[in-house]
Fold each of these.
Amino acid sequence: MSYAYLFKYIIIGDTGVGKSCLLLQFTDKRFQPVHDLTIGVEFGARMITIDGKQIKLQIWDTAGQEAFRSITRSYYRGAAGALLVYDITRRETFNHLTTWLEDARQHSNSNMVIMLIGNKSDLDSRREVKKEEGEAFAREHGLVFMETSARTAANVEEAFINTAKEIYEKIQEGVFDINNEANGIKIGQQHSPTNPSLPGAGGAAGAANGGCC
Amino acid sequence: MFSNIKERFISAIAPDLPPLPGAGERRIGAGSGHLHNSPHQRLRFGGSGSQPLPDKFPYARPPFLQLLTADELRASADHNVRPIIVPRDINLLPWGTGYAECVNSGKSEWNEDQGAFCRQVLSDPEHKHPDLPYTYFGIFDGHAGYGAALAASHQFHHILHEKLVDCLELLLPRDVDPSSGGGDGIQLNPTFPHPIYFQRRVTKDELIIGALESAFFNMDSLIAQDNDRYRDAGGCTACVSLFIDGKMYVANAGDSRAVLCQRRATPDRQQTDTHSSIEPDPLEVSCYPVPFSADHTPETERERLLNVARLKPQLMGQHYVAMEYAKRPHIKDMGQRILCRQGTMRGWTYKTLTREDLRMPVVNGEGKRSRLLGTLGVTRGFGDHDLLAINTGIQIKPFLTPHPDVRQRDLTQVVCISDEDNRDGDYGVLVMATDGLWDVSENEGVARIVFQTLSKYPTEKHRYTMVAQELVARARGKINDSGHWRLADSKAAATVDDISVIVIPVSQYYKEHVEWTQNYKRDLEHRRRQAQANMAQEAVTVLNGVMAEEAQVVEEEEEGEVVVHEARTSQKPQQVEDGVDETLVVELAPSLEQVQLKDKDSAAFDIGKKDNDKDKEASTTRQHLQQQFQKGRKGKGKH
């Protein structure tokens, strides 16, 4: 399906905060209580509409474990948006936010929109991090903040879409260089007829497109 | 501008051809790893024209990566980020086998490498023998398109399986006990000659190596057959490992590489553990790589290529010369003496430069930059049936071959002391990877990283995946501000090629083999008991009817014989296995008697002999009895 823009997202945060579940809830509208550890990176995609325009979100769900940190760092590059996730029932995941943020700021392009997400809001009885603390952290570092629950789907949609809105606004303001794919934004076929398609689907066009001169 | 060159070039090599058919039928080599970094052309002569041919297989990544949607495929092929893809479900590969891959930096739209694996069982259709399991891994590095590598990853294991099934009866362990009905192994299939009639000694090793070799040739022919029906597949290298019957075989054609990474169990290691003193990294000295393949590039295959050129000079047209020059000849040097070597010479000699010497050498360049006919950097593999040389349009395929070199390791011969806890070191970890890894990594460095990473993750289920991921991450490096990929630990260029790595814990296949052998022996014992019971029963039935008097004697003797056989098998099961399994012997017919003498002790050949020379030797009572048993069995079978 054609789109006006493709935005690339990355989801980061400590292991077990629910990154993969947020992605699954957003792309498949389902919750999987037992999820294997993510090794490396997984991908998801969904089409949304902003301002009457079809926008495709391509989401990179990364491994949260320390062992993967050096590899996930290389994925910040080329992302237009990041969801930085912590678990409201585990304070240490909140305490690690500074490190994540430093990492993200250092390795991404400066215009990347970062959304702070306190996940597992359905587990209010086991809450260790107050909503106000999240809000304060976001304010301090210039992030957008939201509490979500991948289990109940509360605010999940909003988290992804609000990030997209912010990116879209930045495009309108001319902040993003949309012609540089390294910024995590790609103009879709509606704007550029030469957009390469998948081989097979688009007949012979795909394979012959090997980036020459 | 590019298309200008293209058009001119096409009219130069094939002036009579109509304008190029659909995009699907041409490839422009935009610096695909193995191809010269300038436009080259492939054409299909006599092609029907405008309609682009379909893909035989739709483009996909290896199934165990579960990149199922177009979106996932697209994201995994991000040339700006080059994500390292590992299987999301570790259980899809056997024994925690590691796999990781990464797309090129933009030289081709898709990752043209492919990986494949398959676990299969060879079973005797009549179920007279236990099943023989095997595991196969393959890695294929495509060039000038993804078709050939994709086809190989889909089809090679089917071909290999057929080849193994072809010689199934020689591979399956022979039932060595005569009391279990005698020559079952021999009479299994009357049309299939027993090895005893062969003119040459043929070992199981040779059968498996032959299966691999012929599978390589068949795969290449299959791609050739599909050439007219499907979109041009390009070509690919092939590196394949096969674990079967307690052995590891690696077959390779092209410049992918398999290296067995090993580690000595050093005493220093234990010392460091106990004293925890500061010592140089013990891994530095204790890890060592054992190559299990040889790269096939124009440089390493210079001799073979020049031989082809020498024997069939017409393959070079008027464009190439089968010579090598110490210095590139120039027209101004004409008539002067120049150091050169001709054909397959090893040393250098002088000759006077003539006009012919100005032609392009069949093999030029050195090392990774060496090229065949100025075009191709790899000289063995599948496909490339339509590949034409740059600027001359000469067919390249006649110089290429799918023939693999095959190496083998007997895992039952590995010495491994269980106390040392060094299974991965002793049996080794097999790293199979495309040249994306090897272009920027030394074998030694890879062996070190393997064991460094394994010791970092001593218990994790996905530790071999971590190894594969680490190897890919290092070879890919990091992108710098000017958009160039650089190695992390130096300023040197990282690879811009596709990278695929398989990391196989070899010891698991030994363990598997031991378990299988135990099961097999139990199974055999069970069959034997059953057969004995049946035979005794049959003997009684038959003899009762025929000769009542003799029957009593038979029963007595038969019991005695059972005892003898049991003693024999329990005494030396190992020897029997060696003697029979290793060599399916086979001497010339005149020396048959000799063989019999030699193998007097081997139960298996006892059977063979008796069976074959029944008439000659049917003088003793024992023989007589056995014949009768068999008649009885056969008779029963017919009813």
Amino acid sequence: MMLTKLGAMNGQDSGITKRQLGVFMALVGSIGFVAVLAIDIVDVGRQGGIGPAQFTALGLLAAGAVIGLTLIPLGDAPA
Amino acid sequence: MTMPRSRIYTLLMAAATAALLFSFLIYLLYTANLLSFPYDYDQGEGFELHDTVLYSRFQLPYRDTESYPFYGSIYPPLFHVMAAPFVWLFGPAYWYGRLLGFLASLVSAGAIYYAVFRQGRGNRWIALLSALAFLSSNFVYHIGPLYRQHTMMVTFETLAVVMLAGAFPRRDKRGTAAGLLLLICAGYTKQLAAFSALAAFTWMFLRQPARALRCLLVFALAGAAIFLWLNIASDGQWWLQTIVANVNDTIPEQAVGLFILWFKLHGLLLIPAAALLVYELYLDRLSIYSVWFVFSTVLGAIAASKWGAGDSYFVTSIAAACILSGIFFSRALAKDWRLPRRFPKAILTKVSRAALIVIPLLYIGYARATLKLPTAGAFEPVAAALGVEGNVRDDFYDSASFLVGGYARIGYLLTAEDRAAGDEIVRLIRATEGPALSEEAGFALAAQRDVVTNPAQLRNLHLAGRFDGGRLVGMIERGEFGIVVLRAQFYPPPVLAAIARSYEQTQSIHMNGFDYIILHPRALDDN
């Protein structure tokens, strides 16, 4: 039932648009970026600041957010 | 659609084909050389053979490592199950597992050919070069003809992605089901296939979200049913050995080094692949190959930081890159782009003309970038003509060199001396009483002794706090093993310490470029 509704919501299951994909990537990228930065703020016992793994994650999330933002103006074109 | 042709294009394409066929010839030689070698070449092959032997006896290799023979396996079953019938016919041997790996790499190359041919407007020549480019990769060359399950996983992944690319958009239920089944096969060959499954479902969700979710539900149920069955049948050891023990310490420098090497060797195809990805992202629809390329590269690179990971973790992304670059080249030649109306068509014509020269040059450059060959014997004049000399060994050149951590230090050809060294280790094992504690299973199998322990797995379990090792250490301290054979010394520190206390080195045997340390029990009054 839920899956049928999902199909109906999305124009007979015609696919995700570039705008939807862009919004998703921008949100995940920016929220993830803040969350990874917050690891150091919340986990005050940690030593050594931002490590290589965190640095990589920050880079990937920032890139994802930027790419997402550039996709939003492309509107309803299928992703 | 007519194919663009010119004499220079034909000549350059013929040169590119010859260069990549030469690379394939080296791959064939390497495979033939390995098939005739009866011992471990890459560390861990023997344990995969032992898994196969256990499956041939209808036994699972997911076992309690606290009791004799202290053996457990980290790998899912499918590759070893596929090889099990060979044990019935030929007994334990390396050649059939290596042959399966090699044949699997050819099947992957065939799938790449088909994908490029289908999506590349029927350009057979580019499709052929894409397939040969995959086989020319130093990373594929390394792992292809080994008794390892990795190549088979990549083959299942590639077949699954190519199958889904055609079937899912057409709503072809059988084709989609076959693609999903191949993904399950990939996952039960090696856990790393989870990245390809993630990529496939992401793409399916982008295309038809509701259908993708229905497929995901069926896929998850089928995968979980197998998982549960294995866990129940192994009394929970499946979970412990393949999941809990699979969380290792990370070495970020290793991932960075491998990533840079991956780009240096394959950059001439990675850039066109990335160009097609950008084109699809902004001007067309994302293909499954683009999504697969992104997921397998990013997640593969992250996973490559794990202890025990290596260059093989990039093989899936290389398969994706070969497909994407092949499609990009085919479309560039055919001027087959969906571009905004205001885009000047004259530019497309110029690009197509330039592509006639640039594309074969890129493949020639790629063949040079991935060059590896023996530099002695019959290949000496070839090496001299190419201006290369042995770098990883006196008699072997590998463009990747052996400088990056995690890059498998293999690829050279084995000699009669290597075989004799292996025979000598087996003779030493046979000359002793009691079980042998060998870091490589092949010697124990050849000597018809029990395969005792899987060192890397014990190390993994030790790090996860799930290996006590009291009984094993006790057997070592009582000198119950007639002989100990060490190579990489992957055992957990308490086991290595017990060996150092109770055994003494009697010999060192050089085989495959590594020193195998032979130890015998110390005299009792030495302890």
